[in-house]
Amino acid sequence: MTTHDDPLIHREFLKGEAWELFDHIQTDQQKRLPRPLLEQPVAEDAPRVVLPAPETFTLGMAPLLELIRQRQSRRKYTEEALTLEELAFLLWATQGVRKIFRDNVALFRTVPSAGARHPFETYLVISRVNGVEPGLYRYLSLEHALVFVRAEDTLPEQAAKACFNQDFVAQAAVTFFWTAVPYRTEWRYSVVSPKLVALDAGHVCQNLYLAAGAIGAGTCAIAAYDQKLSDALLDVDGKDEFVVYIAPVGKVPGEEPED
Question: I need a labelling partner for 239 at 20 to 30 A (CA). Which of 119, 217, 248, 253 fits?
Answer without folding.
Answer: 248
